[in-house]
Amino acid sequence: MAKKMKCLECKIEIYGRVDKKFCSDQCRTSHHNRNNSDSNNFMRNINNILRKNRRILVSLNPKGTAKVNKVELLDLGFKFSYYTNEYKTKAGKVYKFCYEQGYLDLGKGKYAIVKRKEYVD
User: pTM for the complete prediction?
Assistant: First the structure.
């Protein structure tokens, strides 16, 4: 006699293949969304911050290079702790990038904003 299977999401009895776990696509999707929601929320929040930082840099840098005050960046909601990667020049300067938009601390509250021409790792 075959073992009765129950949907992992709604617990109703399911029929079909012996390895079937869900009664429908909706139950499968709901189950996986609920199980992944914590990590998805965390990643979604980080990605939103990174996209906002990039939008701020793009708005302040229409020509590809610009100089701005730290206060201006902070007023627009820029979060300096969030960036996608760093690039260290031969001279030892460290640019921080939000995707293709980068910034460099020039000191005294000034920042240079640059756009990377070709985005590579």
Answer: 0.69
Q: Tell me the Ramachandran region of residue 64: left when phi exceeds 0, alpha when psi lies from -120 to 50, beta otherwise.
A: left
d(CA 76, CA 26): 41
Domain ranges across the chain: 5-115
Whether residue 29 has pLDDT greater than 80 = yes
Per cent of the chain over pLDDT 90 is 76
**CA–CA dist 79, 58 (Å, integer):** 15
